Amino acid sequence: MAIRPARVEVRDLSLDFPLYHGSARSLKKSLVGAASDRFGVGGGRSDVVLVHALREIGFSLAPGERLGLIGGNGAGKSTLLRALAGIYEPLRGEVLVEGTIAALVDPGQGMNGELTGRENIMLGGRYAGLSRARTRQLVEDVEEFARLDAFLDLPVRFYSAGMTVRLGFGLATAIAPQVLLMDEWFMAGDTAFQARAQHRLESVVRQADILVLTTHAMPVLRAWTTRVIWLDQGRIRADGAPDAVIDAYLAEVGDALGVTIDEHQGVDPALSRTLPPPKG
Questions:
Q1: Pairing of strands 179-182, 101-104
Q2: What is the pLDDT of residue 172?
Q3: pTM of the prediction?
Q4: Is 154 helix (H, G, I), strand (E, B) or coil?
Q5: Could you please report the per-residue DSSP string of 236-251?
Q6: Most confident of 43-57, 138-152, 175-189
Q7: What is the C-alpha radius of gyration for the chain, rounded to an integer number of angstroms?
Q8: In the prediction, which pLDDT does 155 show?
Q9: What is the mean pLDDT of the chain?
Q10: How many CB atoms lie within 10 A of CB 127?
Q11: What is the pLDDT of residue 42?
Q12: What CATH number belongs to 1-16+52-100+177-280?
């Protein structure tokens, strides 16, 4: 049976988050407000402010495209990535993703803190529909990459942040997806981890049909992406060729701050080298 080509389609996507006032934080008021809303009685809503995280977002991606998302803090980059991953449900609009997905969005996403690292890997293999033999290979692969040693057989809730990143990254990249979604957390970690992650990432990106990446490292976006979307207060400000969109973004940020932005500051040169294009 032929594998269907990957595709991403976002149509008029809008997403809100409720922000509760201090007066809404007591358990009694929250319960009364929830009950009132459920039965159509007024009250409770005055304590809630809706934050417009995304507004009328629309774009499509075909095999071979690598999309970068830029914008200031709170612009909606990570929120959009999570919506693509199915973590957030749209308030309005539609998100369609066809093909297998790996979401490097939250290091601990999908992990059960009460299970050991090894058990979480096995569970991931089961969710992916792998055979027992293939699941054993998966465990060996992630174990070798993450280098958690004895911690692999301890509950994940005892892991440090760095250990969780290593396990999450290793598991998410062990099975090459058609659609790869990445937040910039994957660049965290010590130098040794970054070197291993870079090598592993090259293999995954090479095999992926579609890549969506969010990062503040502009040299990485110039090297890795074929298209960039600039988000501003939850809306698309610009969508086009990486150099054009990035230059416009940096010019506006620099003008607002009254400075010239050094886009290379704090960026590991190894991460800026060009990755091989995805298949397609």
A1: parallel
A2: 85
A3: 0.78
A4: coil
A5: EEEEE-HHHHHHHHHH
A6: 138-152
A7: 21
A8: 96
A9: 82
A10: 9
A11: 46
A12: 3.40.50.300
∠ at Cα 92 (90, 97), nearest 5°? 50
Per DSSP, what are the bridge partners of residue 210? 179
Tokens standing for residue 23 = 């007066």
Closest CA to 220 of 273, 278, 265: 273
What is the structure's pLDDT at 23?
Answer: 52
- Are 88 and 79 in contact, with CB atoms under 8 Å apart? yes
In the predicted model, what is the mean pLDDT of residues 123-151?
Answer: 92
Q: Do 187 and 268 contact (CB within 8 A), yes or no?
A: yes
Residue 6's nearest CA partner among 55, 92, 67, 56 is 67
d(CA 154, CA 156): 6
- Is a pLDDT exceeding 70 seen at residue 38? no
DSSP category for residue 274: P
User: Which contiguous run of DSSP H or E holds residue 202?
Assistant: helix 191-207
Residues 250 and 261 sit within 8 Å (Cβ to Cβ): yes
Tokens of residue 193, six digits = 């981890």
What is the distance between the alpha carbons of residues 252 and 261, in angstroms, rounded to a whole number?
A: 10
Residue 11 φ then ψ, to 5°: -125, 115
State which H helix or E strand residue 100 sits in.
none
Task: Please count the other Cβ atoms lying within 10 Å of the Cβ belonging to residue 186.
Answer: 23
pLDDT band at 28 (very low <50, low <70, confident <90, very high): low
**Residue ranges per domain, the chain?**
1-16+52-100+177-280, 112-175
Task: Please say whether the beta carbons of 267 and 217 come within 8 A.
Answer: yes
CB contact at 8 A, 29 and 47: yes
CA 256 vs. chain centroid, Å, equals 28
Token code pair at residue 275: 């990755």
Distance CA 164, CA 159 (A): 6
Q: Which of 57, 74, 16 is nearest to 212 (CA)?
A: 57
